[in-house]
Amino acid sequence: MLRDKNLIPLSHQHQRALALCVRIDRAQPIAEAGLGPWQSEIEQHFEQEIRFHFAAEEEVLFPFARKFAELAPLLDALIAEHASLRELFLQAGKRSMSPEILLVFARQLSEHIRKEERQLFESLQRLMSPEELNRLGTKLGIALAEATQSCVLQNETTKLRAKV
To answer: What is the CATH number assigned to the segment(s) 8-143?
Structure first.
């Protein structure tokens, strides 16, 4: 289903986070000595965008979605995943991720994003009226206003390279 214009700002943020997950996956194996630059980029991504993204979802999107009883189990799961992901972002900020945890992080974040896109967003587009989606989009725009619009800069270690 084509993404409703009111959900596109969240979808764009999802795309940037998925790109990070793909790069982590393709860089495997990552040695312990190479973790610092990855954790730095993860921390930067959280500070510039993801913390605002999570807040917008929890304070705006999820309350809108709670109007639909059939979405309650999904919303409960997404909130629990936010808590788990916050812990992983915190580990990156403390530079305490192991190579295995870095891979777990990328997979959990990727699965979480796909769940939101494929289940939550699709359901909301089906269940909400155009007027409700417009109200949601306005509130999301306000909630996301503080997120940095610049790209997170990759460093030499975290750049995606072609497979040889």
So the answer is: 1.20.120.520
